[in-house]
Amino acid sequence: MTATDNPPPETDEQPFVSHLIELRDRLLRIVLVVVVIFLALAPFANWLFSRLAGPLTAHMPAGTSMVAIDVASPFFTPFKLAMVVAVFIAMPFILYQLWAFVAPGLYRHERKRVMPLLVSSTLLFYIGAAFAYFVVFPLVFGFLTKTAPEGVAVMTDISRYLDFVLTMFFAFGVAFEVPVAVVLLLWTGVVSAESLKNKRPYIIVAAFVIGMVLTPPDIISQTLLAVPMWLLYEVGVFLGTRFAPRKAEEEDANDSGHGEYEPLSDAEMEREFDRAEAEEHGDRPGG
After folding, report:
1. What is the rounded distance in angstroms from the CA atom of residue 222 to the CA atom of residue 59?
2. Considering the domain boundaries, does residue 173 fall inside one?
3. Which range (12-26, 29-43, 113-127, 238-252) has the least confidence?
4. What is the number of domains present in the chain?
5. SS in 3 state form for the chain?
6. Greater confidence, 256 or 68?
7. Is there a domain that residue 276 lies in?
8. For a surface tag, which of 44, 200, 232, 246 has the fewest beta carbons within 10 Å of its beta carbon?
9. How far apart are CA 27 and CA 94, in angstroms?
10. Is 188 part of a structural domain of the chain?
């Protein structure tokens, strides 16, 4: 039996399997880090929930408190919060693992783009959540507790309160990602800066519509979400046009030996035609 009787396995299967193994390893690292942080936060779960409920309890009428409607909610709700906080704290590590997985398949100028965007998107999400906690929550809860009809005691369920504030954190965190989304649209050439500037009135209306959908039905929270989204949109347009990484692309093109395409002159085209005709006549029989 010769060596050709048993051909080697296809070479493109091994990289695919190795990618799956690497993805599995990185996902396991993410899960391990989140679990370790959660175990460290678990003893402080009740304290974390007390701090999270601070913006509401500070505006509740005297003699009232939060309630637990479900039997198991006093136990599970603080631990749910501890798990969310663990993921929140581990987010830089999670994004780094995702970045390390996709980075080998990117060009050099793409890697130079992605890393700043990852760092800025993480910081903007944290800033959006902090803005919701320190600015939006006191104003919203102060407004909502004062609008309760006379004779109605404000006693919010702890599990519903947690779901509400997590939704708000997510809404403001994603809203603060607007500059990153705008920069990506400009850098990839999907839209132009002039097009985004011309669509400014529609963007302002869309920001208030999004604020109306994602926030409680009060003008304060809607405005506090819509106005930052509009301002961050303007920041994204400015950064996308001013710091577009054209130099990095030109450096990569020069390094790879490929510059911009230049059409042939008339004299060069005539020489190419003459050379092609000469080769054609030379290939004919008897030529």
Report:
1. 20
2. yes
3. 238-252
4. 1
5. CCCCCCCCCCCCHHHHHHHHHHHHHHHHHHHHHHHHHHHHHHHHHHHHHHHHCHHHHCCCCCCCCCECCCCCHHHHHHHHHHHHHHHHHCHHHHHHHHHHHHHHHCCHHHHHHHHHHHHHHHHHHHHHHHHHHHHHHHHHHHHHHHCCCCCCCCCCEHHHHHHHHHHHHHHHHHHCCHHHHHHHHHHCCCCCHHHHHHCHHHHHHHHHHHHHHHCCCCHHHHHHHHHHHHHHHHHHHHHHHHCCCHHHHHHHHHHCCCCCCCCCCHHHHHHHHHHHHHHHHHHCCCC
6. 68
7. no
8. 246
9. 9
10. yes
pLDDT, the chain, mean: 79
CA distance 186 to 53: 40
Apex 286 CA angle, 285 and 287, nearest 5: 90
Spacing of C-alpha 128 from chain mean position: 12
Judge whether 46 and 78 are in contact, CB under 8 Å.
yes
Q: Each residue of 212-232: pLDDT tens digit?
A: 877 776 677 788 888 888 888
pLDDT score at 130: 92
Tell me how crowded residue 192 is: count the other CB atoms within 10 A of its CB: 13
Weakest mean pLDDT among 75-84, 99-108, 199-208: 99-108
Tell me the CA distances in angstroms from 53 to 21, 44, 166, 247, 254, one per residue in order.
Answer: 42, 14, 12, 49, 57
Asked if pLDDT for residue 250 goes beyond 60, the answer is: no
Distance CA 29, CA 256 (A): 36
Contact predicate 257/113, CB 8 Å: no
pLDDT for position 156: 86
> Hey, which residues does 67 pair with through a beta bridge?
157
Q: Which of 215 and 85 is assigned the larger pLDDT? A: 85
- Look up the domain containing 200 and give its range: 16-251
The verdict on residue 140 lying in a domain is yes
Q: Specify the pLDDT at position 262.
A: 53
